[in-house]
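Long-time lurker. I teach an intro course on protein structure, and each term I like to show students one example going from raw sequence to a predicted 3D structure in token notation. This year I'd like something fresh instead of my usual example. Would anyone be willing to generate the tokens for the chain below so I can use it in lecture? Attribution to the forum is fine with me.
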Amino acid sequence: MKVEHIAIWTNDLERLKAFYETYFDAQVGEIYENPAKQFQSYFLTLSSGCRLELMQSTKHPRPDYNHDDPPTGYGHLAFSVGSKEKVDALTERLVADGYEKQDGPRVTGDGYYESALLDPDGNLIEITV
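-- Reply from a regular --
Happy to contribute to a lecture. Here you go:
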């Protein structure tokens, strides 16, 4: 069994698509649009084969995520980039481009080498070895 895809709601579909395409080398499929439901989405394929579905509904905009009072459910996405050097390099690139670093790079209590940053919508992203 494998994770086929993970779906993420956004209020700015093009901005979030560009983020994952630029920093995580996601291959972007064609946009899907359902005018009756005021819904649009993209499937993005990562090198591992896992896919992200980015979704937007103009009929039902999503509230911003509150890190001080998170809901149950989705906590973060973790991307394995292959080495400590690549964790450091991608973290530095994201910070230089203005993305908010939450933690790291560091070795966690359970032995992961990782950094944690926020994507453009404030979703927590972990970058690991």
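Some talking points for your students: The radius of gyration is 15 Å. The longest strand covers residues 39-45.
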